[in-house]
Amino acid sequence: MIAPYYDEDGITIYHGDCREILPTLTVGAIVTDPPYGINADRAQASRAGRQHGRALAPSRDYGASDWDKSRPSQREMGALLGAAPHAIIWGGNYFGLPGSSGWLVWDKMTGSNGYADCELAWTNIPMAVRLIRFQWMGMLQQLPETRWHPTQKPLPVMKWSLGFLPDPTGPIVDPYMGSGTTLRAAKDLGRKAIGIEIEERYCEIAAKRLGQMVLDLEST
Questions:
Q1: CATH fold for domain 6-37+68-210
Q2: What is the DSSP string of 85-125?
């Protein structure tokens, strides 16, 4: 087992490949937002929108890499679901997951701008479909947060998601941690969590976010 990149206050980060690290962990719940295979980081300029045939400048340059080049395989998704009794998988509509009654819906309140109106999370939690409305689009953020990652979720949305997990449960594990929003949400809720991230720059960002004892509007 590799040494943790970060380990404080019940929150642990591992820098490495989740396919190698996840089987070594004791997991109470999987909560994650895997790559959708849509080249989210490379597509910032083209996805920024177009006006009068001219591309608008992206609001942030996250740097190009291959982390979103492809989706996890069906075998990898099966390993995620088999790792814990409870799971919340954002982007679940991309992955051919089993039928579920307990979908989570984030209404992004984007308006008519070409972006998706909502994002979906698949769960295996026996409940009805639940919805949260939270605007987080460019300058129109319901609560301003620094954007560290091209597919980052708002902290209040992730806190809301974690609220559907049984309590108590074992550690919440995010195998595709990104900038650490799942871990920050878990810490704020007083729950233990583990993040795994293959890109070290995001491990560093997540560790800094976790080190913030009091979050202000600019640093969440």
A1: Rossmann fold (3.40.50)
A2: SEEEEETGGGTTPPP-S--EEEE----SSSS-SEEEEEE-S
Task: Tell whether the torsion through CA atoms of 55, 57, 58 and 63 is positive or negative.
Answer: positive
Hey, where are the domains in the chain?
6-37+68-210
In this structure, which amino acid lies at residue 66?
A: D
**Which has the closest alpha carbon to 106: 95, 94, 93, 117?**
117
Higher-confidence residue: 166 or 15?
A: 15
Give the pLDDT confidence of 186-207 residue by residue, as tens digits. Answer: 999 999 999 999 999 999 999 9
Q: How far apart are CA 155 and CA 150, in angstroms?
A: 14
Least Cα distance to 187 among 211, 218, 204 occurs for 211
